[in-house]
Amino acid sequence: MKLLFKLLIAIGLMLNIAIASAEVTPDALVKQTAEEVLTIVKTDKDIQAGNQQKIFAIAEEKILPNFDFERVCRMVLGKNWRSASADQQAAFKNEFRSLLLRTYASALSKYRDQIIEYKPLRMEPGATNVTVKTQILQSGGQPVAVDYSLVKTSESWKVYDIVIENVSLVTNYRSQFSNEIRQNGLDSLIKKLADKNAAV
């Protein structure tokens, strides 16, 4: 009996390991996340009524965990990241994360039954950096191209940039932030971000 019990535990562990190691492809990750979030947005009456706290909670729980946030911060600050102190890096990450959270929450609150079309994934075998191409179809308007740049980390695929109509989120923020840092320093940028986040 004990042997059978141990065998069942061993099989259970093997199944758990197999499930955990079954890798989600980058396009599946983007599609699953988008469809899960939009289903909630479409069906939740509080969100439809404009409940900001619920919208923030969805962005926090469902969207941000799929980002390689350390990489995003390094890319956005560029050389300024390398010269920043550990405290400055931590403060920037915290405030920039809040900024992104507000940005995604705002985008979700504007969702009104648009349809997302997913393009076939072009990915070389063994690739660790890919682009998932989509477009948002909206009635009475032109389709909006949205491309997700993903990198394979030790854990899973993670998003590190979003390109909307050929405008990169990372490049856009890097341009804005570098001007502020050049004129007033990194601490000034962090304070401005903190003030902006606190004003919401």
Termini separation comes to 61 Å
* Relevant CATH superfamily: Tgt2/MlaC
Can you tell me the CATH architecture? Roll
| Total individual domains | 1
Give the structural class.
Answer: alpha+beta
- Total beta strand runs: 5
Characterise the protein shown here.
The chain has 200 residues and is of the alpha+beta class. It has one domain: Roll (Nuclear Transport Factor 2, Chain: A). Helix content is 60%, strand content 16%. The protein has nine helices and five strands, in the order H-H-H-H-H-H-H-E-E-E-E-E-H-H. Strands 1-2-3-4-5 form a five-stranded antiparallel sheet. A hairpin with a 6-residue loop joins strand 2 and strand 3 (144-152). Helix 5 packs across helix 8 and helix 8 (169-184) packs across helix 9 (186-198). The N and C termini lie far apart (61 Å).
Chart the SSEs and their pairings.
Elements: H1 2-21, H2 26-43, H3 45-48, H4 52-63, H5 69-77, H6 79-83, H7 86-109, E1 115-118, E2 129-137, E3 144-152, E4 157-164, E5 167-168, H8 169-184, H9 186-198
What's a concise summary of this model?
Helices cover 60% and strands 16% of the residues. The protein contains nine helices and five strands, in the order H-H-H-H-H-H-H-E-E-E-E-E-H-H. It has a five-stranded antiparallel beta sheet with strand order 1-2-3-4-5.
Supply the key terms.
single chain, 200 residues, alpha+beta, Nuclear Transport Factor 2, Chain: A, five-stranded antiparallel beta sheet, 9 helices, 16% strand, globular, disordered N terminus
